[in-house]
Structure formats: C-alpha cells, structure tokens
C-alpha cells in the first residue's frame, strides 16, 4: 500500500451551518489532491474534494459505477453486499448496458421536452400554493409544497396514479434515511416492488400516453426491466428536487439581499437556480466509483477494487475552481458545478428539475411576497441522516 | 471554426442545448445531440468553450481552425 502522510479519515458529515458543507472538508482539501479514507465497513478508499479530480474521476474509464463494487461512505444498516443492480435499474451499472436502458427514456428529459412541461408544472405548483394559502401562516412548506410538487409532476409524466403517490414517497424517504433499519428498508422495497408488480402488468395490457406507455409500446423491456426502470425514475425524482426546492427557499429567505436582487430582475432566475444548485449541492454523500484495475490517479496508486467517493458539496466550493466559493451569488455566471454529477451518469432528470425549481421559486415568491420563516433559522430541523440534504420541515408565515 | 458532435459518445445530458440552444438541440427519440449549426461565427467561441467543458462525455469538439 502507498505511504499515506495522513491517516485515513472517515467521511465528514457534521454541518455547523445548514447552508455549508460539513466543516471537516476544507482542512482535508488543503492537504492532498485526494484523501485516504476508510469506509465504515473497513474498506480502504479515497475521498475527493477537488473539482478537477472529481470531473476526471467521473469520466475515467478505469472506474465503475456498478453496484457490486460499491460500499456506503457513511455508517448505515443498508449495504449493497456485492449484489448487482436490479434489471433496468441503470443508475448503478456501466455502459453499454447503462446507456442502452438510459437511451430508452432520455427523449422524455431533453431541454426542449422538459420546457414544454412548464404549463403542467405551473398548474401543479399553483394548486399546491392554493393549499398553502388554505393552510395559513405557520404552515409547513415541505409538507404542503416542496415535497408534493416534484412527485406529482413525476407521477403525471410516468403515468402513476395520484392515489399511490404519498405511499411511494414514504418508501423513497425510508430508503434515503441512513438510520433506517434493515426491516424498515425491506418493508419499503417490498412496498415499492409490490406496487410495481401489480401496476406494470395492468399497464402492459393497456398502455397510456405517458412515459411508461411509451416504454411498453417500444417493446424492448420485459416486466422486470420495466419495474427496475420505473423504480429508478421514482427514486431519482421524488426526494431530490423536493429537497432542493425547500433548501432553495430556506436559503433565499436567509439571504435577503440575494432574494431582493432576484425579485428586481426575474431574468436572473436561470442563473439563480444554477447558483443554488452549486451552493447547496443537496446530494451530500456521493457520487462513488470503484477501480476496475490498478491505476494511477491524482498522483496516487489506486488498487483494483478500491472505492472513491466524491464529496460533491465540497467540490462545488473548491476555491481552486470558484472565486469566493462560500458566497451565494445569484449573479455568478461561471457555474460548471457538479451538483448533478458528471460523465455518462449525469442526472437524467436535470432539466425537469431545473424547470420545476424555476417555476416553483417564481410562483412562490410572487404569490407570497412577504413570505418568511415562522421559526428562528437554527430551529429548522435538518435531514442530517439522509442521502439528500434538506429541511425536515420549513414552517413559514406571511402577511395575509 | 467547425463543431463536431459525436452521437455515439453523447449521453443526452443536454448541457449543449441548455447553454447554446441556437447551435444544439436534442433528438426526440433518445435525446442525443443534434447539431444545428456546425460552422457558427467565431464570436461564439466563448460559449462553445463553455459547452465543451460542461459536456459530461466529451462528445463535442470545436476545431478553431479547421485548416485545409
Ligand atoms: S452536452 Fe454532451 S452529452 Fe449532453 S447532450 Fe450535449 S453532446 Fe450529448
């Protein structure tokens, strides 16, 4: 093994401020290009805190995203145990199988197609804002708004009945919670699979005009693969955009100068969404890859099988890449952030997420110009123990 | 100046269509890159550099001087 000048560290996760990455990253980033780390199960590996190395890793042919070689970077009951991903669950596979599956649905997620969904998204956003108004000042924005909007949009797109949405949402949430026990996780998995096993055959007999119908008519996937694909889309969409929507609102309310700028000039919204994605990087435990062979990377000898984890929130605050990285600046033009990943696995739903965020922030601050937190900001409960970071609830108030 | 876009390599992430919608689109079938203008004027070089750096798969190449 290579001499490491510093002993391996566990992945830092403790945040002193909800808007900042864990405090432990910055000092580590100063030491070496990549940092030796120990995974909780004892597997040796590496932590990547620099933007340049993160980009390189995520496009490097010697590293795999396949589930069989991954381990969790933080302690959790949920381990991959060397199992391969389910058929159709393309996120944790490599090309060519990854791209064969992914290409079947990418047509639904292009920049143009997702922009065309704006009217549907606006309708859903306004319906949820009606609910917020009804709930009155003191309402929980997560419960009434940020959690519901993306999952409703995704259900309409895929073609999943609204009646199933909340149950599926709970399953996704359970699986994203690191403190979840094995029985809880098994319950969530069987809940999700049980629903899909009932629902997919019904739709195979009667395909509708939606994403699922399109996949079924395409005829390239069997029932198992359709289930894996649907589960991947649900998992990828339900929890991510909702947290980003909530974190963005929380952040803007706590950065009134930036919010004022945005109110003055709505043209800034596109850049503001990118800056919020960079600044917040709610995917705070990944991405991970493992070495398919012995390889030199970032001046280190990486052994076959070793796992590398990119601390995306740290990478997006790399002072080597950004001026004043810790400053939220919605006027920033040079984003190039990795909040949505990089390489062939870069987030499939990213443009849909962008549209939801843009429409969501715009409509919320338009309809509730006096929106503010109903509790002191340090009393907002945060999801420290989830794969995706965000507020557990966000009590807000406004002048009627 | 000449742009090439490799549809085999492209993973349909759409950074190109997001940053320069007048130069790039994505196909409706599989989202892969569609080049709308392979020889834009040189004033677009900065935008193109941004596209090249943001394209997650290196599918897009810009030859500043295609020569003869
Ligand atoms: S940015 Fe690159 S990968 Fe994404 S659609 Fe354009 S060419 Fe394809």
Automatic annotation (TrEMBL), chain B:
It comes from Streptomyces violaceusniger. InterPro entries: 3Fe4S_ferredoxin (IPR001080), Divergent_4Fe-4S_mono-cluster (IPR010693), Fe-S_cluster_ET (IPR051269). The lineage of its organism: Bacteria, Bacillati, Actinomycetota, Actinomycetes, Kitasatosporales. Ferredoxins are iron-sulfur proteins that transfer electrons in a wide variety of metabolic reactions. One of its GO terms (molecular function) is iron ion binding. Pfam families: Fer4_19. Gene3D superfamilies: 3.30.70.20. Residues 1-63 form the Divergent 4Fe-4S mono-cluster domain. The keyword Metal-binding applies. Keywords: 3Fe-4S, Electron transport, Iron, Iron-sulfur, Metal-binding, Transport. This is Ferredoxin. It comes from the Bacteria. Its cofactor is [3Fe-4S] cluster. The keyword S-adenosyl-L-methionine does not apply.
